[in-house]
Please model this.
Amino acid sequence: MDRFDRLVSRFDHWLGVMLDIMVITLAGLLLLLLNWAVFARFILNDSVSWGEELPAHLLAMLTFIGAAYLTRTNEHLGFDAVLRVMPAGMMRVVTAINLVLMGAFGAMLAWYGGIAAASFGARSLISIDAPMMLFRGAMPLGGALITLFCTVRFIGIVTGRIDALDLLPESDA
Model:
């Protein structure tokens, strides 16, 4: 393995660790906040002001960061059963085309998500004093990560450093 491969591998590892932490933190926070909101409303008979707004924004964040996470772990929605019956050369071509399309989607998500996130400027959530940009920034971040993952994998497929079988979902090994 040459120096560049080690660098990409190390970067991918740490990016994966960061995504793991982000997804687990967002999901855990969402779970805690929703349970507290239900507990406060039905047991304490005292509804919280952020009971709907904050969890909705956290769920949106989890959606976009989670999409990047699933792209990285090869668990995104796909028709891998079709790929499995193809010859190796055709599998590489179809995988490369798929990566280009997914990367283009990620780039559009990053671009237009960035425009949408910037349009909120310094506005805050209604129920708590948290900037909307914090929550809306997950869309361009998720799109940029999807594009990054797809670009690196496309280069790996084209150069032969990555086998198309390696990009099938992990659970199907």
